[in-house]
Design goal:
Length: 176
């Protein structure tokens, strides 16, 4: 939660006045518990979404980075209160694990996928396959750099800000 990619994503959402919740998954940093190969971590995301709904009765835009993206998309896609998804550094192959994103074919929420053009965990062709199978609407943006967007974090932030601005422009005004 304290890496530069997550920080820049938080700043992008915060620039629109959105409250932002960053957290460590079980067993990471000072958090309790042990890593559960993604199963229990989906519950972690669901708990975070439930807390956000109680604290801020607003539509939710989800953003996740790397493992947080792979796990968070599984929790956020079926949640009716999550209106859009941003997947940063979507892992396709990482540390001997292959990630499956077949559930995205039924996820019709707006989705932005942002990846470094030399991301060691998301080879171009494999990520393009994942995104091609995802339901519309979707967008895939490659930014120069590796998995951590080293030297290109401002481009990452600008990409997210532009996409969120376009998403918000397409929303119907709330009567009030």
């Amino acid at each position: 939660m304290h890496n530069k990619v997550v920080f820049h994503a938080m700043k992008a959402f915060n620039s629109f006045g959105f409250p932002v919740l960053r957290f460590n998954f079980r067993g990471t940093g000072l958090s309790a518990g042990r890593h559960d190969e993604g199963r229990g971590e989906i519950a972690d995301v669901q708990a975070a979404l439930a807390w956000l709904k109680r604290e801020f009765p607003l539509p939710i835009l989800f953003a996740g980075f790397s493992f947080g993206s792979a796990t968070g998309l599984r929790a956020a896609c079926p949640d009716p209160d999550v209106k859009a998804l941003v997947s940063i550094g979507t892992p396709v192959e990482a540390e001997g694990r292959l990630y499956s994103f077949s559930f995205l074919s039924d996820c019709h929420k707006p989705k932005l996928f942002v990846s470094g053009d030399h991301d060691q965990y998301a080879p171009h062709e494999r990520l393009e396959e994942v995104v091609s199978r995802a339901a519309e609407p979707k967008e895939l943006v490659f930014i120069p750099g590796d998995h951590f967007f080293e030297g290109h974090l401002s481009e990452l932030r600008q990409t997210i800000e532009s996409w969120v601005a376009e998403f918000l422009e397409r929303q119907e005004p709330v009567a009030g």
